[in-house]
Every structure is written in C-alpha cells, then in structure tokens.
Amino acid sequence: MIQWGWLLAKRRAVAAVRWPGPWTRGEAVSWSGKNQALRIAPTQHDVEDMLARAHASYLVKRVPKDALLFWEGEPHENHYYLAEGLVEVFTVDGAGRKKSVDFYRPGSFFGFQILLDDNLPMTTARACEDSLLLAIPKDSYFKALHGCPDFADVTVRNLFGLLAMQTREVINSSFYVAAQRVPLLLLELARDAQEAGAQDEEGIVLPYGNGEIAEMLGVSRNSVTASVSRLQSQGVVEKRRNSMRVVDLDKLREIAYLERE
Q: How many whole angstroms separate alpha carbon 179 and alpha carbon 64?
C-alpha cells in the first residue's frame, strides 16, 4: 500500500533542492569503481539491435534539463538506456538533505526497480541536461533479458558495476573519515574524467563543486571545503566556480594512497 503522505513529503523535499550547474557534456563521470566493470558501453545502435532481435518494444524519448524521470517510492515500470545527456539519481530525506547516488552518462542503463514486483524506485532520477533515452517497458525488458544473450550479458555487467560501486562506498565510509574520503573520491573521478576526455593542458576538469562532492559522500559541505582547501594549498587541485581542476594527478594519487594506509 502506497503511503501518500510520505510521498508528498518526499516531493516537497525534492522540489526544495537547489540543483547544481552548469553541466558540460563529455565531462560527466561516475565514481567508486563502477566504471571499472563497464569499460565498453553499448551504443544506441547496439541496444536497439539487441531489442529488435528479442522482438522487444521501446520508446525513444527526449527529455529537457531538470525533468524528473521517476520518483523515489512511486511505482515506475520503465527501464532506461541513456544515449545522450546526463542523468543524476539521488535521494532526499524529509528535512531536505540530498544524497547523490550516481550520475549516468551515455551508454548507461538505469531504472532497475523493474526487477522488483512492486516497481518502487529507491531513488529519484533527474536529467541534468537535455537528454535522449530509450525507455524500455518492463515486459519488453524481460523479453530482451530472456530472448537475447547479449542483452542479458549487458544487464549482468551493469548490475555488477552497481554492486562494485556500492561495495566500495561502504568500505570507504566504514574505514575512512571525510578528510580521507575526499581525495579518494577525487582520484576516482579524475581517472574516469581522464578516460572520458575531460582534460586539457591545465589539468583534468571535474564539473563538481564542494556541495556536489559532499552529496556524493554523504558528509557536510564544510568537511569537503576544508579537504579541498588543503589539496589546493598542496598544488593538487584548483577550485573554480561550480567545478574544480586536478592539476597534479600523480600527487593526488600519492595522497589518496597515503590516506588508505
């Protein structure tokens, strides 16, 4: 049974959140090791071909920036493949505190709540920029899962990637305080950004401010600000408005590994 009072409180909390920005296409990254399991992402053509082989239907959807694709706790029967753009999944508590769970870039699948009987998402999904998606209804998703081995392989790899991400986050939050977790996270972000081509002569661009880093880690913004200021004084990063630049990746790697010891 759906608790409508709780859902209304959630909607109000989400509506009160100030969204970060601006976001730059090509600089979006995930974190905490997920991408290590997803080095080769399928293209839109690949996914459409797999669905066609399984005779599974889907819809091509263009959604504008800030559009919400589904809400935490409200049944939703579509699974998604992101062809263009950037999508954030997050949760907000009754007090309005936001925790970013992940950012999906092109080639990603999300909306695995369809594997549940009640189809209830544990997070809310928002387009951070104008995005192009393939919306796959639940019955079509299972048709592709059972009728196309390649699609089943992609699904397993994505689920393993999500498990790897969450396992890494649990380990880091259990053993390291905020001051230690910030350089560990920045190193993961910098590696993924480097692979995505978000690098110029001055360093590796990370399109996140201190607030977004704090939301990823589930810690206070003040803790992140103190850690980033320390890294800036060490010549590791340069702080920009709503972003930062890693100017010495080797030194960041050295600091992150020292924090692990």
A: 36
CA dihedral 30, 32, 37, 38 (to 10 degrees): 0
The answer for 219, left when phi > 0, alpha when psi is -120 to 50, beta otherwise, is beta
The burial class, CB within 10 Å (0-12 / 13-18 / 19+), for 202 is exposed
The answer to whether the beta carbons of residues 32 and 176 sit under 8 Å apart is no
Tens digits of per-residue pLDDT, 169-186? 777 777 777 778 888 889
| Domain made up of 176-260: CATH architecture | Orthogonal Bundle (1.10)
Model pTM above 0.90: no
Q: Which long-range contacts (CB under 8 A, 24 or more apart) does 196-200 make?
A: 196/26, 196/27, 196/28, 196/29, 196/105, 197/26, 198/24, 198/26, 198/27, 198/29
Q: How far is CA 154 from CA 108, 113, 231, in A?
A: 10, 17, 38
**Is 132 within 8 Å of 60 (Cβ atoms)?**
yes
CATH class of the region 4-173: mainly beta
pLDDT in tens, 210-236: 888 887 787 888 888 999 999 999 999
